[in-house]
Queue: 4 jobs
Job 1
Amino acid sequence: MKKFTIALGAAAVGACAFATTGMAEDAQVKLRLSHNLPTNNALHYGVLEPWAKSIGEASNGSIAIDIFPAQQMGPAKDHYNMARDGIVDIAFYLVGIEPGRFPIVSAAEVPFLVSANDRGSRALYEWYKPYAETEMSDVKVCTMFYDGGGTIHAKKKIERPADLAGLKIRSPNVMAAELYRLAGASPIQMSANDAAEAVERGVVDALSFPWKLVQALGADRVLHYHMDTTLYSLATAILINKGSYERLSDAQKAVIDDHCNADWSEKLPVAWTDFENEGRAVLLEKPEHEVYEISDEQLAEWKELAKGVQDKWSADVAAKGLDGDKVFADLKALLEKYDAAR
């Protein structure tokens, strides 16, 4: 980690040195960045705020990024379109939130895929970069990174897939939904904010959530059973409107480019992952909550279902003319290269 920090600092210094020659004459640009979570979530204060601050500093103050949290500018599922259409200049986007829209990148969210979200995010960015040029061609894909990972929080103990049969569960993306469907559940895809309310109203019986978010949104008032394993990690992206980027000076573009790379993809999820792990520790201390481990046999049943999720994904992209097995194997190879595969 020390070598990575030194390398990242050196890159930032290099960008500043390059930028200062032209930055002094650049007019200040204000960019609007939108995301879906509240300000007390680490995505806001531990990920996006430091990234935006670093851009401001590297540009000698000529780029100012105003952050609009908690879906102020629009629903989470609309954030790709908002970046594409210039409603915002920069958007944080959950790449699996719109079923079927971006089939290639969905491979990154197959359950039981990633063991380390920081190194895994570097692999994700490097793997998807060539595909982004066609699948997300109408925006600039700046960085990509995994969230803190999620598990099942329910009104009863869920240990093996059969325990989900007949239950309604909030699913965060297509891949998790397919896992739960194969288990016999009825997955419902909705935003985190809507899901917390839905569980209190009895619309759903369980949630697929990270550890801290289930508490931050109040769903822990109803859900007292928490599976102690990471079933999946969500892939996310920072997207930039192409017109907003093109309006920048060359020096300002250089600063943005220096914040849109594999190094930043690896750095960004660290605070978010730590934040979610803190949530697990809090629930462990609450006597009314049960954070339970599952056996190796039970885990094997979940992983067998995950193979079915991967097979369906491969078949879906094969119908679009892609070799799904090769695409997935390339992702796995990069995860293994960076010691981030499960």
Job 2
Amino acid sequence: MANSPVETVRTTSDKLLLLLAAVLVVLGVAAFYAFALQSFYVRLGALIAGVALGAIVALMSQSGKRFLAFAKDAYREVGKVVWPTRKEATQTTAIVFAFVVVMALYLWLTDKVIEWSVFSLILGWK
């Protein structure tokens, strides 16, 4: 198992950006509850605006930029995946179900043999 490096926020500007992002999200949540007398859509708009602005500010930090690069790489890798055809997926599913049924029968039979041997042969119960 490889050790993954722990990433920390090192610069003051990154810390301030992340703090500002957190404050914006908290303000969005607070606005949602503060506008209790307003319509639901106004409250929801305030919440979404706070979270969206917080996310935008967070993505402007070094940590956010690294996250965006990672997300782009991950999305690119998903495009390289060779997905099974419908026939392959159906066959694999059928094999798994058949294996489950065989294992269930085996475990049921083993349980009954152990039950019979313990209760009938060893303890003499009928």
Job 3
Amino acid sequence: MLRILGKAASINVRKVLWTCREIGIAYEREDWGSGFAATDTPGFLALNPNGLVPVILDDGGALWESNTICRYLAGRHGRADLLSLEPRARAGVEQWMDWQATELNGSWRYAFMALVRQDPGFQDPAQIEAGARGWNRTMGILDRRLARTGAFAAGAAFTLADVVLGLSVNRWLMTPLPERPDYAGVMAYHARLCARPAFLEHGCNGIP
């Protein structure tokens, strides 16, 4: 059986859990990460040299990086609806997954660490304000995309791009930002995702 190493509260672990639920994959999850089993031990670092969760273990060995794991699971289980086999359509999904992992993730770090984690190292008021503005600006890119598709990130159908972006949208909505633009496209998108039981279980479940 598939083993997932990582605490259930982690946003990146939740990507994998959501993907498993969409596909119908049975798994065993083990608590690793902050507050649980340490990820800086030689044993864990042999699985992921970055010392981060999630890591999956199956008969192919260990695999890390959450977006890569989601792609692997969709491919292994023949879910071309989640990640197309046609090169152009696949690239359309992967570009939004990569954007989530780079541009969008990079934009929320300071504001999220300050306002949700309340980390003492992230309490400069000017940087919080700048971070919130940058996060909102980046979310505006997604809002305009969703206004064009009228449905999901890669087009009319739900794909893996929506797993990773849906969790990011949930985080944005749950963070007490000083100001949050009224993005109609994002809000309609969030409502569409809330019709999916897997999102309610692993995305919109009260965890930012």
Job 4
Amino acid sequence: MLNTLSGRFLILTIIFVMLAEVFIFVPSIARFREDYLLARLERAQIASLALEADDMLAPELEAELLKNAEVFNVVLRRDEVRQLALSSPIPAPIHASYDMRDPSAMALIGDAIDALLDTEERVIRVLGNPVRDGGLLIEVTMMQKPLREAMLTYGRNVLILSAVISIITAFLLFLSVQALLVRPIKGVVSAMQRYAAAPEDARQIIQPSAGVRELRDAEESLQLLQQQLTGALKQKDRLAQLGGAVAKVSHDLRNILTSAQLFTDRIESSDDPLVKRMAPKLVGSISRAVNLCETTLAFGRVDEPAPILSRIALESVVNDVVDSERLAVGDYDLSVDSDLPPGMMIRADGEQLFRVISNLVRNAREAIMATHKPGTITVRATEDDAAWHIAVEDTGPGLPPKAREHLFKAFQGSVRKGGTGLGIAIAQDLVRGHGGRIELERSDANGTVFVIQLPKADLALAPLSE
């Protein structure tokens, strides 16, 4: 409880009320002592009136009057004449005299403190003005111990009353702090926790509702901060998606431009003067476009748009890929062929399927050419009642263990130095959009085989078991 705001308010309130009572107690006990002594003077004056009524009082009656007045003797002064009105034996010498006719506040406080601290049996003399003009002066002698005991009793009562007042005040303040501060603060904390769990959700932004101006200012500042953060997160997400999209487009566009670059190499051999003059500029422009695409491949990945499915001839798509790759091979001892059933029709998005097969074939070509050894790449296809199966086989060196471990992860599954690993990741996304999947059927020293499976039914193929 001491670690809570309301608990600390409770303890501090009790402490401060008690401190306030201490400051009040000092003048209060001084006033109590003054009233006590004045009351004894008044009682002594009343007792002396009995003597004026009858000059010859019995000793027993005189002793009874002094006992009731709680004094040892009474001296009255009238007309400059000092008269001992009542008297009895004094048990000890007079320790001090106190004049109550016109004492200062500091004198009263000092005398009260001395009386509280003095535990000895003392006899004191008290002087004062008689009431109702009963003379010029009244003087009594009395014991100080009863005065001290009365002051202690009064102090204990004040302490108990102060404690009760402080506890009640602290409890009321505790309830007030709970309602005005603690509950709104807990609401702000809960709103912050909900927002932290889902900062992108604009519904979790706090709505200011506190009645206390300072807390409402804090809520409004927090609301502004959350709005800015949510906007920044959304903008970051959009930029990440845009970056991923640009990376994918740049990857495939680079492949297309590379093929176009190969065509321009052939154009440069033309005898046409105009072609010879324009070809270098065309080559330069395409090269710059390829470089620009390569510099954008550091962006993230996002989902591809849904494919537009239609019945297409698989041979047409594969032949476009094979022709482009044969140009890239050039004079290198590498064969790129296809082995397809005649007239096979499949249901797919032609452009996306071209990108999938092109990425797989290009990866195979680059892997084989990196070994500086001859090789072959073959695109095959089969079908059954459930799906079409398109296999891309090569006689390359196979995938290294690290590439197989991160095969379908963008920027991690590249085989060659400087590669991005986007090709196979893009291919997987595109095939998943068709409801199909890509499997690495085999990869060893004899080569690699990837198999694309496209479902014939509207339902997607079941995922591979891990």
